[in-house]
Amino acid sequence: MSAVIDTPVLIAGAGPVGTTLALDLAVHGVASVLLEERLDFPPNPKCNTTNARSLEHFRRLGCADAIRRAGLPAERPTDVVYVTRWAGHEVTRYRLRSSADVFAGRRIGAIDEYWPTPEPQHRVSQIYMEPALRARLATLPACDFRPGWRFLDYSQDADGVECRALELATGREQRFRARYLVSGEGGHSAIRRAMGARLEGREVVTHMCSTYLRCPAMQRLWPHAPGWMHRIFNRDGESHILAIDGQELWLHHSIIGPDKRLEEHDHVRAIRNSIGADIDYEILGQERWTARAMVVDRYRDRRVFLAGDAAHIWIPMGGFGMNAGVEDAVNLAWKLRAVLQGWGGDALLDSYGEERRAIGQLVAGAAAKIFADLYQVPVDHPDYEADTPAGAALRADIGARVTAHNQSEFDSIGMQLGISYDSSPIVCHDHEPAPPFALDRYVESSRPGVRAPHLWRDDGSALYDHFGPGYTLLRLGATPPDPSALASAFAARRVPLTVVDVAESEGATKYQGYPLVLVRPDQHIAWRGHTVPAAPAAVVARLCGLEE
User: Fold this and answer.
1) Which of 410, 390, 336, 408 is nearest to 178 (CA)?
2) Across the 548 residues of the chain, what is the mean pLDDT of every consecutive 10-residue run?
3) What is the residue-wise DSSP string for 58-75?
4) Are 471 and 335 in contact (CB under 8 A)?
5) How does DSSP assign 435-495, residue by residue?
6) Which of 119, 91, 86, 46 lies closest to 406, judged by CA?
7) β strands within 138-280, DSSP E
């Protein structure tokens, strides 16, 4: 066995969550070891949406544009289309922009183009998104990325975590000594089992069969305008077909139901029923799996943390699973960095689970509700697939109901931009009530706990682009107070602080007239005031999990 390798952070699993964590640490010069069993990228497409909030983070980490250029052809619309069958009738459609539309700033009447964000959501399969993350990580020397390595086990003491890993190609075992260990292993996390954490919630929402296809003929059979996700509902079943490369690669999801056995599912019949015709295709991969709505009972055991699907598993409606995992990684990264760099206390690490578990429960409930709402389509009516005026009228009525029930999954501005850490112990809350949460509604606010409102500056840059690596103090309006006392309190604790003057009038409006606003490294508001706080040292101590 080789000599023990010391590292500040060891991350098990280099999917989007583990890679984002390693990337966020490495951008700020914090070393980590990232272990991944796979030598290549996912064999099957998984998450196919990188949402606006994730892309805001990837903008900060230097890879948002690369992700937006990946996946579907630049000019392909990413509409969501409901049909009776692939070669059948269109029921309704939600218009969404292509990546070219976004880069060009074109308005096409898309349901999400009004969102106040510098980085609109993007439809891209994980098989294209992961390479973009890895390519950015490869430019940063702080991460020791080890593909082909299997994490084995760990033990921890007061000062660190002893870990063992196996290099699969050689059978060589390696020991690591880490200050902190993070599981980004996914839903079957061995670290979660070893720490004794339990998943709580609904064990079965439904069963699914996901089949990855190569089928060049599929596009020729499609009789409608192009789309990205195609939801198919008829008396023979429900399924979704996603365009992966916009040409010949497709992902077919069969919704089997909660009471049927996975092994008895006839995927050949299900695919034929979806398409409505016989067609030749090649199966590139298949997964049969159970959709759940579960969140782990704890995210931390001393020096060991869970993130992403290791901490929460739910039916992947709206891409909420992977994107919530990215937010886990970002939340944990800055707190680990603060502690390792000496400006954060252990209470900061406790706040990771306190903040993210509440959000995990919120997302689990929202995903399960979206799935339940899918069944508002009355597909058993004899006119549903009829090529008649009565059939057309029925489908128009059903389309209106589908839009009322299901559009929020794709117009999920509240889920993406409206998450707030309402009871966080490291936020200085005030008396203003939190904006009401709704999946498809977002109210801009400067209330502590919320995401800082986005603003385009007079020079064309995004306000987020001016935020620093630590805390950022926004001075808004024409005559904001002198923040010297607050800045001195940050300096006394060696907490990095960037001061940004925001003279644009829109800033004063979006931040509700508060001239001083403190923003955390993850772009959530930590404190606001009309004057410098009377006890600035106490504010800094609370925000950084330090004892006064």
Assistant:
1) 336
2) 92 97 98 95 86 98 97 96 97 97 96 97 95 97 98 98 98 98 96 96 92 95 96 94 96 93 94 95 95 94 97 82 95 98 98 94 80 72 95 95 90 95 95 87 96 97 98 96 97 98 96 98 98 97 92
3) HHHHT-HHHHHTSSS-TT
4) no
5) PPPBTTB------TTBBPPP-B-TTS-BGGGG--SSEEEEEESSSPPP-HHHHHHHHHTT-
6) 91
7) 143-147, 149-156, 161-167, 172-183, 199-214, 229-234, 237-243, 249-255
Secondary structure (3-state) at 401: helix
Q: What are phi and psi of 460, to 5 degrees?
A: 90, -5
Tell me the pTM: 0.96
Residue showing tokens 């218009």:
95
Domains parsed from the chain with CATH numbers: 5-69+122-199+293-368 (3.50.50.60), 421-543 (3.40.30.120)
Contact partners, residue 270, CB within 8 Å, separation at least 6 = 209, 237, 239, 252, 254
Q: What is the dihedral of CA 407, 409, 413, 419, to 10 degrees?
A: 150
- Distance, in Å, from the CA atom of 402 to the CA atom of 92, rounded to the nearest integer, reads 8
Q: Which residues contact 265 (CB under 8 A, 6 or more apart)?
A: 207, 209, 254, 256, 288
Q: How many CB atoms are located within 10 Å of the residue 272 CB? A: 15
For 198, half-sphere exposure in the C-beta direction (CA atoms, 13 angstrom radius) is 4
Q: Whole-angstrom Cα distance, residue 379 to residue 281? A: 27
* Helix (H), strand (E) at residue 83: strand 80-83
Task: Classify each residue of 104-132 as buried b or exposed e, where b means 16 or more C-beta atoms within 10 Å of its C-beta.
Answer: eeeeeebbbbebebbbbbbbbbbbbbbeb
Per DSSP, 376 falls in state: G
Contact 398, 384 (CB under 8 A): yes
